[in-house]
From TrEMBL:
SUPFAM superfamilies: ARM repeat, PH domain-like. Residues 669-818 are annotated as: Disordered. Pfam families: EVH1_PP4R3, PP4R3. InterPro entries: ARM-like, ARM-type_fold, EVH1_PP4R3, P4R3-like_central_dom, PH-like_dom_sf, PP4R3-like. Residues 5-101 form the PP4R3 EVH1-like domain. It comes from Onychostoma macrolepis. Belongs to the SMEK family. Residues 669-681, 788-803 have a biased composition (Acidic residues). Residues 142-633 form the Serine/threonine-protein phosphatase 4 regulatory subunit 3-like central domain. Regulatory subunit of serine/threonine-protein phosphatase 4. This is Serine/threonine-protein phosphatase 4 regulatory subunit 3.
Amino acid sequence: MTDTRRRVKVYTLNEDRQWDDRGTGHVSSAYVERLKGMSLLVRAESDGSLLLESKINPNTAYQKQQDTLIVWSEAENYDLALSFQEKAGCDEIWEKICQVQGKDPSVDITQELIDESEEERFDDMSSPGLELPPCELSRLEEVAELVASSLPSPLRREKLALALENEGYIRKLLELFRVCEDLENREGLHHLYDVIKGIFLLNRTALFEVMFSEECIMDVIGCLEFDPSLPQPRRHREFLTTTARFKEVIPISDPELRQKIHQTYRVQYIQDMVLPTPSVFEENMLSTLHSFIFFNKVEIVGMLQDDEKFLTELFAQLTDEATDDDKRHELVNFLKEFCAFSQTLQPQNRDAFFKTLSNMGILPALEVILGMDDVQVRGAATDIFSYLVEYNPSMVREFVMQESQQNDDDILLINLIIEHMICDTDPELGGAVQLMGLLRTLVDPENMLATANKTEKTEFLSFFYKHCMHVLSAPLLANTTEEKPSKDDFQTCQLLALIVELLTFCVEHHTYHIKNYIINKDILRRVLVLTASQHAFLALCALRFMRKIIGLKDEFYNRYIMRNFLFEPVVKAFLNNGSRYNLINSAIIEMFEYVRVEDVKSLTAHIIENYWKALEDVDYVQTFKGLKLRYEQQRERQDNPKLDSMRSILRNHRFRRDARTLEDEEEMWFNTDEEDLEDGEAVVPPSDKMKSDEDLMDPISKFMERKKLKDSEEKEVLTGKASLSGRQSPSFKLSFSSSPKPSLSSPPTASLHPGSPGSPSSPGTGARSSPPTAAVTTKGGLVGLVDYPDDDEEDEDEEDADSKEESPPLSKKSKLSS
């Protein structure tokens, strides 16, 4: 496997100071005889050709940048870079370079020396400062070259930045820009673009403060309009002065604050719109610009937060009915942007910020705004509400509980949120999805607090189920009064899916509150009506809801399901889905499989007694036959408690075998067919420690008498229904109309005793791989006969159905009497 640690891209710097990709390969260090020294070798991963062979010179300055880059200069105008896929590989090669040059690998640059030609050019770089060319129109090209050549080296960047600061060079450059623009000197403007862009990449706060000052920033933006790569200059200044307008929704009296807001907007515009997207080598060079914007926002939030007069006026106008709609729209948008700025604050500052807003009455103000008709205003208010919920859901919960003591349910804040979710006009329900997420956060017990005096979970959930749950479930109850949803359009189904998902969340995280609500309001029956929807996603939501309830294994829920025959819509949905192999088919089968695997006895009996006739022909999975087997084992244990206790005794004897009979018993155990062994049964050979035959035969005799009676009844039925006896693999029924069957919603009036594990195979069976089944309807009602493969010996001995009926084979348990 290729070592990814050594995987690199090779870059070279072209004449335009842009990095060109020379290919991808794997780097190594080795002694090269031709170069007489340790060298860096990069071979292409595609064909193994040599991409780079560079001797590690003792005096070359190598730089490590951003943990995965190594940059150096081979000659005056030939810069190279290796970009590593992994930091570990970069560290490994860096150590080799440092080892050759005798340097500590902890440094990021191996040399601070420059060659003679550069010394001449820079007039002794070892001096404290750097002499810049005169700021004249004829020297602009020289200035641009100086800035571009200084960027690769941290040392040069530092000296250049100091020179620009000390000489007030930026202001001189901007004066030159105005001259060039007046003269329409396009070449000079292009050079100024390169110079100003290079100054941004120097990443110095002191330079930014000069460039972003009130008198300079528009000229800086002007310089960046003349990109040499574009045929026509941009018009950023025109946009900022004519299109973008500063709106003071509340007059700001502090001039410093006003100036800070203007500056931040313009610098953000430079970062997002004016500056070209930085390359991989320039990303780190703009970190100071990000920090400048960040700290400006922090300062703005702090200054507004401290201005109590401003905030008081803001909330007063927000809640004043006399405020016109346009003004209120601007106020809400300002507050939204104010909250968005707060996300840049440190945690302790953010706490103080939201505490200030809470004290000023932001939640009552939001309640007023959410009650308005303007969709845009409500949307902005929803965004503000989401900031509050994400920051401190307990604060919102406390407010709505206090509010409920004074106001009607209709105007509670949470009910307003639910109503906006229900009434969302967006076809994709984008707003409803956002609001549902906020509701989920509010009802999530995981973020509720518990103190010594009170438990927020108990108080809030009691409040929610009393005052709000009926509003949330109203669309569901209104749409599920019949056997099918009364409205089945896409938007309604999306809304119902959101509501059912939240109810599913409540089932999982709430206890008796949701249980009482579901059982008292018959919510599960209403939800299962949605399985008849034409939209599969909604039917699946309903199935998930029921699956979550069954997964709790709560007998209160189970009795509710059985009492109301709530598996009926699930079985109908399964049969109506037909033979399609899709999510609905898989979800329903998984639900029944869960009941079987977890051995939920009450539900197993309910399903088999009421829906077996509809499900018995499903043979492409063993789920339903496995359920029938579970059911029969339950009935057998109920009808024969002595036999059940006898099995326990036999099991105990089996696991306390005498050493003298070990070999005989093991041989008998392994010779027994696996198919003879069923859950909870044991075949035990005679041993010295086993109870006497007389003690055991009494329950066995009763069992065999009952079995013979069943077999004789079975024979009569099979004789009368000979057409069924040859069926090998029953077809899958899509409806209940294939034969006279009782209603799914009521149990059969009478049934024969369920088949025992020793039931004989149906006549005409030969192959074990697809054992036939027979479902027979008698005058008394539904008879379920589940056939099981018998012993190999019995298959050989029984030639036809008649001989089998005349002498039924012994069950496994009858072996005990032999």
